[in-house]
Amino acid sequence: MENTVLFHAPSKTYNVAGLAAAFGVIPNHRLRADFKRASAGIMADINVFGYTGMLTAYKGCPEVEAWRSELISYVSGNMKLLRESVTKLDPLLRFRHRQEATYLAWLDSRLLEVELDQ
Q1: In what helix (H) or strand (E) does residue 33 lie, and over which residues does it extend?
Q2: Is the pLDDT score of 114 beyond 70?
Q3: In angstroms, rounded to a whole number, what is the distance separating the alpha carbons of residues 10 and 50?
Q4: Separation CA 85–CA 32 (nearest Å)
Q5: I need a surface site. Which of 14, 79, 91, 115 has the fewest CB within 10 A?
Q6: Closest by alpha carbon to 111, among 99, 97, 94?
Q7: Residues 79 and 96: beta-carbon distance below 8 Å
Q8: What is the pTM of this model?
């Protein structure tokens, strides 16, 4: 845990990337000082809109939690549809998705042979 650094933001889950709000947890005092020094002048401080958006996302109000739950269900449905579609498309194309917290999917096409006209 001494060298663990965590960065987190509500931007993807809550669709608030424009608020430019994030936070870091750096328990190691030396690493935190190094990070502050290296990021000085590169990263802006949080503004009132970003702070309010992050507070609203994380404070646990029922409306926000309901929206997040619906989002997870919707994205899971999309992943299921993609998995089924890829399987039908070509048996050599593999759906490689093990992450549970993303809307990105990895397709493995190494078994496909593609000839390009030159």
Answers
A1: helix 29-39
A2: no
A3: 10
A4: 46
A5: 115
A6: 94
A7: no
A8: 0.63
